[in-house]
Structures are given as C-alpha cells and as structure tokens.
Amino acid sequence: MILQTENLTKVYRVGKEEVPALRGVNFALDTGEFVVINGPSGSGKTTFLNLIACIDKPTSGEVYIEGQPTSQLSEGQLAELRKRKIGLVFQTFNLIPVLSAYENAEYPLILLGVGRKERYRRTMALLEEVGLKELAHRRPDELSGGQRQRVAIARALVTNPRLVLADEPTANLDSETGKQVMAIMRRLNEEHRVAFLVVTHDPVVTQYAQRTVKIRDGQLFDGSAKNGA
Amino acid sequence: MELKLLIPLRNLTRNRRRTLLSLAIIALGTAMIYAVRGYVDESMLSIRQGTVRQFGNLQIASPLLWAEKTENFGYLISPEDVARIVALLQEIPEVTAHTVQLNLSGLAITERKTKVVRATALEPQNQALDYNDLVVEGSGLNPDDRAKVLIGRALSEELQLQPGDFFSLTTTTVDGAYNVGPLQVAGIYALNNAVVEGQLVFMPLGYGQILLDTSGVAKVIVTLRSIDDTDRIAQIVQRKLTEAGLEFEVRTWVQLAEFYRQIKGFFDVLFGFLTIAVSVLVFFIVLQVLTLSFLERTREVGTIRAIGTKRYQVFLMFFMESVFLGVLGGLLGIAGGWLIGQGFNALGIGWTPPGAIEPVPVRLRLELGNALGPFLVGVFATLLSALYPAAHSARLNVVEALASK
Ligand SMILES: Nc1ncnc2c1ncn2[C@@H]1O[C@H](COP(=O)(O)OP(=O)(O)O)[C@@H](O)[C@H]1O
Ligand SMILES: [Mg+2]
Predict the structure, then answer these.
(1) Nearest neighbour of B308 by CB, restricted to A97, A99, A111
(2) Quick check: is B117 in a domain?
(3) Please, which residues have CB within 8 angstroms of residue B42's CB and are 6 or more apart in sequence?
(4) 8 Å CB contact of B310 and A76
(5) Contact B306/A88 with Cβ under 8 angstroms?
(6) In ligand 1, which atom is closest to the CA atom of B399?
(7) B2, B14, B306: residue with CB nearest A82
(8) Which of A56, A178, B242, B321 is the least buried, fewest Cβ under 10 Å from its Cβ?
(9) Residues B15 and B70 in one domain
C-alpha cells in the first residue's frame, strides 16, 4: 500500500465561521493503482489532495505514505518526502516560465542532486515518452496547453516517484486534448508501475480509472467500479 | 548550481525593463559614490603632498616649542645637539634627507607701510625642504645668499615689493635686544593660500641667526623615502632620541598640520553622509522593485515548494538574483563613475576653495583601489533590499501560494 488516510478531517476557519471541507475520510491506494476521485466543485477534492501531498495539515486524522505517518514530520522532512516519493500535476500546469520544457522536467532531479548526464538521460527519456522530445528547448509560452501539461507530467514522473497526484489535470484543456493527457497518464501508470490519484469534477476522466471514488461534501463514497484499462 | 545560478539569472530576464531600472539605480548610486570618492582622494592626495612639502615628514624639536612656550627661546637646539640628532638620523636608511629651520617674527618696514611677518630661516637649496619650487617671480634662495628673502605674492602686493626691492625687518634677539636688518627680495612665491602668502617669508638660516643673535635652530626637519613610513620611522627616531638622552620630541606631518586634519575630518563626514544617503535611496528603490517582482511569482513559489524545494533554497534562489543585480549594477556604476571622472578631468573645471586665491581644477582620482569601497556599497545596499522580500517568499504558505492569482 502506497497511501492510506485515517479519519482525515479538515475544517477551514473563515472569521468565526467553521467550514468543514473533509469529514473523516478513510482511503487507501495500492501500489501502481490508477484511481479517480470524482465530485462536484467545492466537494473537498483539492483539500484532500493537498493533505495527501503533504503541503497542508489535517485538522485531525493521519496520512500514511508507504506506511509512514506524516503528521509528526518537520517542514524539511515533508519537503524531502514530497521530492522523493510524490509527483504533482496541477490544473494550471504550473511550469516555471523562464525555464525550457527540458529544464522544467529536469528541475526535480536538480533538487535530488542527480548528476548532469544522468539528468539528461532521464529527462529526455520522459520527454520522449510524453511525445515532446522535439520541443524540449521551448519555453512554456511557446507550447500549447496540452503540451504544457505533458511537460508537467514528465516533471512529475522524472524522479520515479511512487505516487502521482493530479488535481483537475484536464480542466484547462479542451476535451480531445484532455483525453490525450489522460491516456498518457494511464500509459505511464502501467509502464512505470506508479500509482496515480486523479481528482476531477469531469466525469469523462473516470473512463481512465481502474477504480473510481465519489466525493461529496467532504466524504468519500466508494464507487468501486473497476473499469479495466 | 542551477538553483543558485541558472534560475536566478533567467529570472532577471523575466522583466527586462524592471531589471534595467534596478541596474540603473544601483549603477547610478555606485557611480556617484565612486566619483565623489575619486574627488576626495585626489584632493586629499594633493593636500597631503602640499602638507608634506610644507612640513617634511617628521620634525624634531624641543617639547617647549611644541607646547608653544617660546618666550624665552629655551627651545633652541644647540649646534652640538643638531650634530647628535643628525648622527642618529644617518643610522636610518628610510631617511632621505634632513635640514634645520629657525622661526622668527618681526616687523617688515617699507617706505610706505609696516606689517607683522613671520619668517622661516632655512638652509637654501637643501635636499629635504626647500621652498624655491614655489617661486613664481624672481629667483629662489642660493646657499651663498645672505640678506635675501622670498615673500609671498599677497605680501608683495600689500607692501608693493618686487624682486630686487629692499625692506627692513626689525626683530628682538634672544637676549631681548632690538635688532634690525635690511633684506632684499630675491623672489616671490605663491602657495594659493592667502593667509600664508600674506605673512610668511623665507630667508637664509645664517641671516635669521644673525637677526636673533643665536647659533641655535628651532627644529630639525626630516624627509622619508615614502609617506607610508612616517609613523613607523617617527617611533624609531623618538626611541633613538630618548636612548641618547636627547630631550626632543618627534612630530609627524599629520600632527603638525591642523588644516590637514580638519579637512580630512570634513571630507570623511561628507563622504560618510553621501554614502549613507545614496545607500538608503538604492535600498528603498530596489526593495520596491524586488518586492513587486517576487510577489508576482507567488504561485511559482507554491509550485516549487510543493514539489520539494526547501525554504532556504527558495530564499537562495531569490537572494542570488540580488547578488547578480548588485554585482552587475556595481560594475556598471564603477565603469560609469570612471567615465564621469575622466570627463571632469578632461574638462578641467575649476573652483576656488575657501582661503585659496586661484581656482583649482576639479580632478578625480579613479583607480581600482578606491573603486572597491563604492562597489561594495552598491552591492550591499542591493543585497539588503533583497533580504526581506526573499525571506518573505521563502516563508509563504504553500497551499495559499498555489491558490493565488
Ligand atoms: N482556504 C480556504 N479557506 C476557507 N474555505 C476553504 C478554503 N479552501 C477551500 N475551502 C472550502 O472548502 C470546501 C472544499 O474546497 P476544495 O477542496 O477546494 O473543493 P474542490 O477542490 O472539490 O472544488 C469548499 O467549501 C471551499 O469553499
Ligand atoms: Mg479544486
């Protein structure tokens, strides 16, 4: 098991008001699984993903990454964990605009202190897998949305993480491009044996899931519908 | 490497106009400080040279003279003691030359006017300190001259004396007797200092001794190979004097030249004030620009933090940007200041300092040696401006940063 959450809750405080965003979420993700969590806007998807990504702290409950509880880890230890074990894909791609596609995808390897030659080998291999080898030198603003998201996927996978988390990865893409991006993620999931957890409000995305979970008002409802590949 | 070099450098290209603005501000500040530094250094150097030319490097005299207890002439140094002092000086290789002087004052009388003057009696054309190079009209003093005198330009105008003219000088001898001697103007000197030119005359030592009726001198003047040796050799000479049982005291030219100390103090304050004012200005403008520029990247900070970049790495990334800005701006400033300085030097614009008679050209001394200070001021003001915005960016909450814009 790569990921497990235990009675995860998150309550936002806005002024005097308390907004419960997650209400006791128990969830588990197996190594190499491809799971889509589907729910309407405001249902708590991003909140849930942020907690799993270890960039936010739950109000109560625990997140286990490869069996390790994370609530007691320091800021530095959490950064270390994110950099080694988790890849992230964002709705708005979030590439660094002053870096080329190659440099964006290479960035996490720099954080890991990988040597230049090895970085080149791994980065180019991934850019080839997402079909961007030819455009490696381009800056993000010279790429289409779909191409940018593919760079972001390469960046998320370049460190060989155990888990990739994607928050609405197709929301800023037209439906055709969205499907291509999902297909690429699904393929990489199989080829790299890396678990994917995709949260989305887009029902189309669920077509690519091995397993779909519904979320509503901060609670999960296991759809358990296995779609095959 | 890439975090500290590549990304910061790329980020500087992000908004070129803004980067150019920052560079221009830093460069302008640095150039101003450098130009003023160059002016101060050049002025101080010429004042120092003038001062050393006036006083020598060291002077040896009785403590009575230094304490200005001169009424009874108890400060005079006998010929025997002069010989012993000279013998000591000859043991020191850094000493290039020495001479003696006697000072007196009296009343200069012409057919039309009288005026109180001070006279320095000296060995004409000695190797150490000789004022013949200041002569602008007539000739200097020669070793075989007797009743000849050099007078300042201001005095020559006041008493209407030309080279070849005579006047008499009345003095009091060491025994308190009245004395008077005729003097012929050999030449007129100029020092670009109205007070000195109007008061001070130079005559041969022998004639001064006649006027005072003494065989003694007031002080021994020493010149050194290098001005930088002054303090060290002063200590050595003093020790040798004390060991030899000679009760004389060494004074350096800095101790003697009150004017030099005052002007140095004035320049130090002026320069310090300018440095602070310019640094503060650069600091606030660059702070403004960097704050804006860093805030625009809030979501990027959220992104790189989310994928594992540590806080200190974010800080360094941003801080390094200011290092490049500061160093580049500083270098541009030094180059700009140098050009400004060369321009001033080439134009030869003059101004008349207080107490001077003629305008002196504004000259700037611009060398690598005095460039370092202004360069560092430019760099540090920039680094300081980056400190807070960089720390702020490094401390952003990741989730909030990701959600921004
Ligand atoms: N920073 C926040 N402060 C207050 N309320 C928040 C904050 N972030 C999210 N919420 C609230 O929590 C709930 C879940 O939000 P979110 O996780 O962003 O949902 P989703 O990603 O599914 O649209 C919503 O009601 C939202 O308004
Ligand atoms: Mg969301």
Answers:
(1) A111
(2) yes
(3) B363, B364, B365
(4) yes
(5) yes
(6) 1
(7) B306
(8) B242
(9) no
What span, in angstroms and rounded, lies between the C-alpha atoms of B218 and B82?
10
Nearest Cα neighbor of B317 from B301, B341, B296, B339 is B301
Number of Cβ pairs < 8 A linking chain A and chain B: 62
Per-residue pLDDT at A86 exceeds 90: yes
Contact A153/A194 with Cβ under 8 angstroms?
no
Q: Is residue B13 part of a domain?
A: yes
What average pLDDT is seen over chain B?
92
The atom number, within ligand 1, closest to the CA of A40 reads 22
What does the alpha-carbon distance between residue B373 and residue B29 come to, in Å, rounded to a whole number?
Answer: 12
Task: Kindly state whether residues B67 and B30 are assigned to the same domain.
Answer: no
Same domain, B19 and B91: no
Cα separation, B100 vs B209, whole angstroms: 12
* B308:A107 CB<8 A: no
Q: Are B19 and B75 in a shared domain?
A: no
Give the pair of three-digit tokens for residue B180: 């008077």
How far is the CA of A97 from the CAs of A24, A56, A211, B229, in angstroms?
A: 38, 25, 35, 60
- Report the alpha-carbon distance of residue B398 to residue B302 in Å, rounded: 5
Residue type, B367: E
Domain end, chosen from B187, B215, B247, is at B247
**CA of A211, closest CA in chain B: separation in Å?**
26
Measured from the CB, is residue A42 less than 6 Å from ligand 1? yes
Other CB atoms within 10 Å distance of the CB of residue B172:
16
Kindly state whether residue B254 falls inside one of the protein's structural domains: no
Residues of chain B positioned with their CB less than 8 A from the CB of A76: 310
- Whether residue B235 is contained in a domain is answered as yes
Name the one residue in this structure whose structure tokens are 């790299």: A192
Mark yes or no for CB contact A108/B307 under 8 Å. Answer: yes
A49: nearest CA in chain B?
Answer: B399
- pLDDT value at A227 more than 50: no
pTM: 0.81
Atom 5 in ligand 1: which residue has the minimum CA distance?
A: A12
Q: Which residue of B has its CA nearest to A54?
A: B306
Q: Ligand 1: which of A14, A47, A48, A199 to mutate, judged by most atoms within 8 Å of the beta carbon?
A: A47
> Same domain for B199 and B145?
yes
Q: Calculate mean pLDDT across residues A61-82.
A: 95
Say yes or no: B321 and B377 in one domain.
Answer: yes
Contact in structure between A177 and A146 (CB atoms under 8 Å):
yes
* % of chain B residues with pLDDT over 70: 99
The domain of B374 spans 2-51+260-403
The tokens describing B320, both together, are: 């390094």
Task: Tell whether B33 and B169 lie within a shared domain.
Answer: no
SS3 state of residue B365: coil
Do B201 and B228 lie in one domain? The reply is yes
For residue B403, the ligand 1 atom closest to its alpha carbon is 1
Say if residues A136 and B45 touch (Cβ distance below 8 Å).
no
Q: Is the CB of A21 under 6 A from ligand 1?
A: yes
Nearest Cα neighbor of A196 from A221, A213, A176 is A213
- Provide ipTM, 2 decimals: 0.94
